[in-house]
Structure formats: structure tokens, C-alpha cells
Amino acid sequence: MRFFRYSLLFFFINFSIYAQDIQAVDTLKVETLKEVVITGQINPQSVEKSVVEVKVISRNDIERQAGNTLADVLNNTLNLNITPNTASGKSGVSLFGLDSQYFKVLLDNIPLINEEGVGNNTDLTLINLDDIERIEIVEGAMGVQYGSNAVSGIINIITKKSSKNTWDITTYVQEETVGEEYEWFKKGRHIQSLSIGHNISTNLYANATVTRNDFAGFWNEKKGESYDQNDGLRGHEWLPKVQQTAKALLSFQKERFAVFYRFEYLNEGIDKYDAIVDPNENSSTGTTNPSAIDEIYTNNRFYHHLNSTGTIFKNMAYNVSLSYQKQTKDLERYTYRIKSDEKENIEKGEYQKRSSVFSKGTFSNLFQTNNFNAQAGYETTLIEGYGSAGSFEILGADAISQKVNLYDVFSTAEWQLNEHFSLRPGMRVSFSNLFDPQYIGSLSAKQTFGEDWELRAILGAANRTPDYDELFTYFVDVNHNVQGNPNLNPEKGVSAFFHIKKSTRVTEKLRLKNKVSVNYLGLKERIELIVVNQSPLAFQYNNIDSYKALGAFSENEFFYQNLKAQLGFSVQGISKILDSNTQASDDFLFNLQLNANVAYGVPKWNTTFSLFFKYIGKEQQFVETSDAEGNQIYSRGTTDAYSWLDTTINKSFFDKNLTATLGCRNLLNVTSVNTTAFSGGGHNSPGIQIPLGYGRSYFLKLTYNINLN
Amino acid sequence: MNSLKFIFFSLSLLVFTACSNDDRNGSSEPFVVAFENLSANIAELPNTTTIALVYSETAAQNGEVRLSLQTINATYGTDFTTEPAAVNNEIFIPIQQGTTGTSLIFNKVSASIDETVEIKFTITQIDYPSSQIQGNTQFSLNSSASLGRSFEPNVGGPNEGNQVYIDLSSETETVVARDNWDLGFYSGNDFRVMINGSIYMAAAQLQTTNIDAVTQSDVTDLQSQVAVGTFNPVNEAYVDAPDGAIGGTTIAAISENNDNNKVYLVNLGYEVGTETPLPGSVAITGDTRGWKKIRILRNGTDYVLQYANIGDTNHQEVTISKSEGYNFTFFSFNTNTTVSVEPKAENWDINFTVFTNIIEFAGAYGFSDGVLNNRKGGVTAYLVNTNETSVSYDDFTSQHVNASNFEADQRTIGSSWRDVMNEDKVIYDHIFYVIKDPNGNIYKLKFTALLNDAGERGYPEFKYNLLQ
User: Fold this and answer.
1) How far apart are CA B210 and CA B297, in angstroms?
2) Per-residue pLDDT tens over the stretch A54-64
């Protein structure tokens, strides 16, 4: 049945694939060696020259994986773990053991708004990759360059802003199974996209993209919306959701001046069909009229970004961004009469809203000499919002809006002491309406030995600002007392990284790149909900704990003719110093990760075979449990090891106008992992299952591409 | 040319997205007409009574329901009549399109109707497409206890502002605001005083017998402990025994010897909440109601209550008599008078109310959705878990009643019928109860709702049936 549907899909596309007179495009281009990066740089430059260590995921990598959202492509990145939440359908990031609160996501250098924050706490499934040129990743605290919450690292997503063609038109359809589940409409994932780019004149470029991503949910044992029995089987295992994205760019460039305006709109609808069915038994007639209370969540995100770069005063380069972003989440809650398919008691309204006005400017080449360059910059972030992620209350007119205003200035310099050694000091001062001024600094150094060896040492710092719940929660009644704390300070993070890199050209055909890194990340004044009064019992958030991550990792690349392989491994130890709990242990607990990434191209067939692998080793964590006597103790809970393995085949046809990507995600069919690392259980309790995925799934993506000159 | 092809391709994409469908398999339920209730006490009926019939769904068209009439010791026309009238012991009632029920009017004609009379109506035919006779197919007018019905006690929504006293055998409900009273003076043989656990009151004995000498500084340290919900088990001593045993009141038995009657520090608990919480949640408590100091003495068979605000150096005094036939005489500090709360002791079986319970290691804790049986009135109950007994509510008969299971503990139903620990607030479908009233009638009782259709808390529903 499934194959019939695929062939139907081919049938639709066959109408339009005879576009012979069009210039071929390199969708399968071999990796460029000199990747230019901008993250953490004074001026855009190659990865090799960068003092900061930057990892790049190229458009090619994204294509080979047929990744649609950021969550799809980061799955096999070393150190970085994707943490899916099956109930909400969101995906977060964990890096060096710290969750997505500590990790900053930027779009063209500016932090991206989301329902729980600006820049951090990002739901990766809400970031569509259709007009993305590359993704740059930096590990470690980047507070000087990118402000608060860039503690464990940053991702900078760089969009496409020019084209060498007069017209670029790309459209694709992608059909995916969700585990074993696939149907035209009710099951599986269905993606359609269209993007058009056009050079209006030599100076003016525009592009626009629309994408629809329909995820019909993971049903598993569940029976969907119209099921009327109260046995817990109504609804879906993973909530179905539909995302619609529209993006547009207008870019003007003339000599030493460039300006662009970029717009994004995202709409996401999530359907939550409650598992609980109220039979509404009529004991008089002995009949039922089952109903359930269902919820529809609607996310709307608007993103505006105006950026200008150029040079003034002879040589001073400036780069100024102004952005306004807004994200709202609406909730519609209603009583659904299952038999008659009717909605009653419809309640509708906004329950979360956040907007930010952001501006950042950098001014480089301030005192430029041959071996010295200084940059000064400012960053202002004005965030206004209400509604906490934890409450699902439709807000009335009396909702109190909270403001976080940050005004930062920063400066960095790059100093080339000699041909092989350069230094990069930096500092930032941050003023805010909520906290005392925060001062942070950074220092990086790079030393090269000949052509092949590169040494980097990077000291960075960044703070995490307390989130809405930590500052403003108020839950007090006769039995409870949990309160936010408006006097909280930002958590203070520092990191140190040391990288040794060597490039080797073994023969004309065989090249190697090896890197060994050592890392340290420390966090002080961590915020924790603690008991502030024993009797009556009261809780409040306070700056009390600290955290350390210490580790080593190695990343190795191997190029041989049409084969490219990448292999990495990492050992990270984490120590949590819980001053909020007297019995806690601060021993280091270690975790091993491996990743591998292989691409093999067969130019004759226009085909690339790819494999993406990641192993996440057994992970230990101290948790509060009770021993045989019922006393509270701290013991080591263990989360079992698991692996992700994806494979794809990428083949282009008809002068590369049509590309097909056929793949299998989660080949090892991982659905959940067993853990004893949860608090509250008995000492030797058997553990619980954490859902991770919906099992092995298959996809086919057909991309049709026209370039006109 | 290529652009044309491209447009065509794009259009074909649209086909995918445009025709999202939904194939629902509609199920067809039978149309049922049934009596709303099963019985009524003929002696207590007014001369004209409406007997309600309900439909399983709104009637989509006109139809007719046919009833048969059987009588014992009563004659149609001389002792009683009905509207529509009975012809040859048959009554035809029209079903009107757009309505959800209909009714039959019963008129008592003769004054000679006594407890030997029984009049029964039975549904014999429903003229309506795909109809079915099921549920309450019979309605009896006689002088015995109620056969059972369903109830939606008016607990008052998510603030649960009411105490609702239900008498199963007479199908009556008495609604009283939960903060209507503060102290209950026991009317039985003992001299005992209870505090109002439904507003989370607490009381602690002081060392003195001189109420006027107690100052704020004497009690300040104690005040943080004399409360519900402190998570300190010490506070168990400051609330009445949650099982409802009269000997377990926090205020000691009132002694004839005044030297034994100490002053008590009384936490008046909380006003009824006024906030509208999230659907499924409750907002039980409002502002705190403050503090009193009290001392209670005996005067013959009466109680003497002395009370004052904490800092006052003089006090008020009121004499409170026991109430014959009632469990308690109730007193309110709001009105400074006795107030009417409970029906007579034999006229209620269960009370829907917020109540104070004790959680092991955590002390006194406020519970919502409580149902307390009338322990002082002699009502006992037990819980049946169908996961263990395998007899369902519908199949449970008097044969299955185990007399040794009946418990006096007023929390036997308590909050054991619902689960509110998770985000989803649900009733346990596998639990029902057996209740014995003061007259020896035994009922089975099962909860059918905790929330209303909009998911709001404080709208319980239950059904019960006489076991005979």
C-alpha cells in the first residue's frame, strides 16, 4: 500500500521533470575546505583562522540528512544531546549536562524568541531549515560575544542571502513514516515546501519560502480523537501538530554597503485529545454520551530583522541589527461530544505572550594595524511577556506583564603577536532593570606550528538570567507555599577549552584532520527551589548550588577520494554541588559518547550514501531515593546507553534538477531508555522508561530545482 | 514553458494539502425514554405531582411513549387520576420534537391513600425510530424507602463553598454554606465541642483558665503551628480526629469542674475561596478568618461559651443548649448566635464537604471533594473495589452485602472515590460503596462525575440503589 502511494507521488512529479535547458546545480558538491564562519569573529573568516573553535553543519549535511527542523540535524552531533518531550512534542538541547536554558540559539547572529525565552529554552522543532545556508556551533561560554544564557554554547543559524542565479526555484515534498505508521492524511509526516529566489537587479536580491510540515502524531496503541471508551486509549502517544512557515528576505548590496530585511512567520497548531473520556452516564435511561475535554494550542511567531553592514570613516566596519520578535501561544479548550462530533463550552484565549526588541551593533577595525584589531559593540534586549510555561491558564485582562531589559556593551580585540600566535581578550558589562551590573570577560589564544598544527585555548564566561517562573511564580494556598524570588541573581558560568588540531595530507588522495580537546565548565549561584521555612513548609527559588563539567573529546575527519568519514568520542564528567541538600554527593559522574558520520559519493550515479551514528553511554546521576528503612538517601541512578543510527541515499536525476533522498531514521529502533535516575523511588526500584523516539521510520524526499540565468 | 510546468507541479502539491479529510464512523445509539427516578413516597406527596420522564437524547422528531398502570389498594378515578388520563390502565404520552423529556401528572383525589397503597407505572412501548426500553422502566409510588436515583449535589463548583447533607431514603438534599458555622456543641450524652474542619480550623489548649489574661505575646509562638497544612505532624493534635469519633475532638471533654476547662487558642481557618482556578483544580481557601480565644464550661445540661479576640481583656459569654434529635447545636462567631446547619440526625446519611484529614508524617491536610457519612447518627459504610471482588455495581445485590464490613469512620467514602494527584482529575470507575442508613436501609452508591462537562471541579454526581 505504501509503495503504491509513493509511486503516486512520482506520478505527480513526472509531469514536470523535463527541464533540460537549465543549468545544473551542485547539490552534491564535495565539502569545501575553506569554510567561512562568522560566529564569534570580528570579521568573517575561515575556520582555520578563527581564534574561537567553530563547528559547521553545511547545507550539504542538512540535505544528506533531509533534516527539516533543527532537531533533525543535531541528533548526531558530539556532546550535544537532543532531549525530546513526547508529551509536548518539543525538543530541547542538553550540552555538557546542562539543559536548553543554558544554550543559546541565534538566527543570523541575533537571539531567536520562543515561548519560554529569548535565545535560550528554544524548541528545536520550531526552527525550520529551508532557507538555511549553514549552522555554526560553538561550545563553551560565549557571554562576551552573545550575552546572557550563552553558557554551555551557542548555535548560530546562517540564512541564505544571495544567489549567483537570476532565478532559483526549489520545491520539495517529503513523506515520512512515524515508526511503522503511515497513511495519506491521518498518520505519518507530510512536508511540502516551495522557495523562490530572484536577483531583481545586480544590487537587489529577494527570496521567499513557504513550508508546511504536518505531523500526524505517533499513535502507537492509542486510538485518536473519535475513540469513546474511557480506558486511557483516546488521543495520541505523541501529539499531532501542523507547522506552517513563511520566510522572506530582501537584500541590497552596493560596494561597501549592504542592508537586508528578513521576515519569518511561524504558525503551529497542536491537538491534544484527552485520554480521559467522561461517559456522562444517564442512570435513568442507562445510556452514555461520552465527552472529553480537548485542547488546541496555537503558536504564532513573528520575526523581523533589519541588518546593515558596511564601512564608514575610511576603514571602520560596522554591523548593526535591529529586530522585533513576538511569540504568542493561544489555547482553545472545549468539551468534545465524541458521538455527535460537536464542540461545547469553547474557551479561547492567549495564555503566553512574549515580545522582544533587540538591537546589536559592532564596530570593528577601530584601531587597526597589521597585527591588531579591536571591536566595540552594544546589545540591548527589551523583553516583555506574561504567562508561565507551567500554567495553562487563559489569561484575563488583569494578566501582569513582566519586563526584562538588558543593556550591554562589550569589546574584543584580536592581537596577532607574531605569525603563529594571536590573542583575543574581551569583556562585557551588562546593565539590567532586574539585576546589579554584571561583568564578564574572555580570553582566547591561538598558536600555530607550521602549516599543520593549531593550538587554541579559550576562556569564556556567561550568565544565565533567571526565568519567568523562578522570578515570578506564586503558588500559595492552605496546603502549599511555593514562591518565585524577584531578588535572584543571574547564575554565573565560566568555561575553559583547550584544543589541539592537526591536519595531515598522507597522500594526494588521503587527508586527515584530528582534534583533541579538553574542557571545563563551571556554574556558580545555581538557582534551585529550596525549603525556606520548615513549619509551615514554604519553598522559594534561591541562588545556592554549583555545577562542574570536566571532560575531554576528540573529533577526527578522514577524506579519501569520494569517501568522507568523521569519528568522534567524548568523555564528560559532571559534578553537582547541591548546597540545597545536605546529604547530596558531589562526586564526578562520567558519560561516554561516540559519533560517526560517513558519506560516500558515487559521481557516476550522482549518488551519495550517508550514515549518521551516535552512541550515548550509560549515564549516572545522584537522585534522592529511600532505603529499606524508608530513610531519604542519595544514590546513583543509572540511565542506560542507547544509540541513534540514520542512513540516507541521495541521488539526483535529469541534470540534477530532481533530487531524491531516501532514508531511514532511527535504524536501531530505539523507542525508550530505562532509567533509575529519578527521585522519589525506592533504592532498588526497577526503574522507569523515558520515551526517546517513535522507532524506526522511513522517508522519501523529492526535491525539484530550477535555476534560471 | 518551464515556469508553466513548475506551476503545474506546485498545484499538484496543493492537492495533497487541500483535501485533508476526516472519516468518522458515526455510531447510532438507541433512543431511550425512561423515568428520571424510580420511586416516590406517596404519603409525602402533595396533591399534584409531576413525574418526569427523560430521553437519552434530544428528540429529533415526534413520537409517543406508552405506559401501563398497576395498582394495589387504589382505584383510578376515585383515589387518584393522571394527566394524560389513563384509559384501560394505559397512558399515552406524546414525544415532542426538540424536547429532552416529558412528564406525567399524578393527582391524589382521595385522602384515604395509606401505606398499603402501591401504584406502579411501566413503560411498555416507545413509538420512535430505533427506540429501546431500558434503564428506569418502572416508577413506583408507595410508602417504602426510595429505590434510588441519581443526584448532583450543589457543592458549589471549584470553591466547594457548600456542605450538602443528603438523605438517601427520602431523596432530600440540604445545602449549607461551609463557613456558616464555627463550633458544633454535641447534643448526645457527652459534652464535646467540634471545630469546623471544612474551613480548616484548628485549636490548641493553653495552660490557663483565665480567658481575659491571654495576650497576643502568650500565643505568638504557638500560632505558626496551630494551622492545617503546615507539613508538621505536630498539628494533628490541633484538629478533631478525622474519623469523626466524638471522643477525638481537639477540645477536651467539657468538665463539670471548671478548673479543668482550659482556655483554647482557636484558628478560625479560611474564608471560602473566590478565585476561579484552572479547570479541574479547586480554590478552596480565601482570606484567613483570624483568631479567637475561647473557654467552654458546663451549666447543667447546657454549655457556656466564653470567647474574645486574642488581645481583649474582657470576653463575651453565651449559653448554648443541646438540640434534641440533632447531632449538634452550631454556633457562629460571624453572627454571635446559634445557627441551623445539619438536618436531624436521622434525616441525613452523607455530607458532601471539604474536610480536614491527616496525612501520615505530614500532619493535618485540607481535602476537597470529601463525602462524610453521618457517624454520630449511626450511618456506616464500606468500600467495594471491583478489581478485588469482581461483582460490578450493576450486579451487586443484597446477597453480596457483608455486614461485618461496615465501618463507622466518617471518611469511609471520604475522598477515596477520586484521584486528583495528576493533572487529569478522575473518578475511580472500579470503586463503589455500600451504605447503611439509621433505619437499616442498605444502599449501593457509585460516583458518576467529579467535574462538569467543561472540566470544572466541584460538580460531583452519584447514583444509588436500594438493596432489597
Assistant:
1) 12
2) 889 988 888 88
Task: Kindly tell me if the per-residue pLDDT of A420 is higher than 70.
Answer: yes
Residues of B in contact with A21 (CB under 8 A): 2
Name the CA dihedral angle for A104, A107, A110, A113, rounded to a multiple of 10 degrees. Answer: -70
| Distance from C-alpha of B355 to C-alpha of A550, rounded to nearest angstrom | 53
Pick from A285, A342, A395 the residue to mutate for testing the B interface (most B CBs within 10 Å): A285
Give the Cα-Cα-Cα angle A654, A659, A664 (nearest 5 degrees). 145
- Set of cell numbers at residue A509: 588522495
Residues in chain A: 709
Instruction: Tell me which chain A residue has its CA closest to the CA of residue B37.
Output: A284
Contact A331/A295 with Cβ under 8 angstroms?
yes
Question: Facing residues of B108 across strands?
Answer: B80
Name which of A105-109, A368-372, A524-528, A542-546 the model is least confident about. Answer: A368-372
> Which amino acid, one-letter code, is at A270?
I
pLDDT tens by residue, B50-69: 999 999 989 999 999 999 99
| Packed helices B2-18 and A2-14: angle between N→C axes, nearest 10 degrees | 150
CB contact under 8 A, A479 and B21: no
Nearest-CA distance from B317 to chain A in Å? 31
Of B12, B139, B267, which to mutate for an interface test with A (greatest number of A Cβ within 10 Å)?
B12
pLDDT of B396 over the 90 cut: yes
Helix, strand, coil distribution of chain B in percent, nearest 5: 15, 40, 45
Sheet holding B328-332, edge to edge: B193-195, B183-186, B328-332, B337-339
Q: Map out the domains of chain A as residue ranges.
A: 2-237+244-708
**pLDDT band at residue A680, thresholds of 50, 70 and 90?**
low
The mean of the pLDDT values for chain A is 85
Q: Residue B77 — left, alpha, or beta (φ > 0 → left; ψ -120 to 50 → alpha)?
A: left
Whether complex ipTM tops 0.95: no
Over residues B88-94, mean pLDDT = 94
Q: In angstroms, rounded to a whole number, what is the distance separating the alpha carbons of residues A339 and B425?
A: 22
> For cell 460531583, what's the residue?
B460
Structural domains of chain B sorted by starting position, each given as residue range(s) with its CATH number in brackets: 31-143 (2.60.40.2030), 149-173+370-467 (no CATH), 177-345 (no CATH)
Nearest CB neighbour to B16, from listed A190, A282, A537? A190
pLDDT at B333 over 50: yes
What CA dihedral angle connects B72, B78, B80 and B82, to 10 degrees? 110
More confident residue, A120 or A88: A120
Mean pLDDT, range A239-268, rounded to an integer: 93
Q: What architecture (CATH level 2) is domain A2-237+244-708?
A: Beta Barrel (2.40)
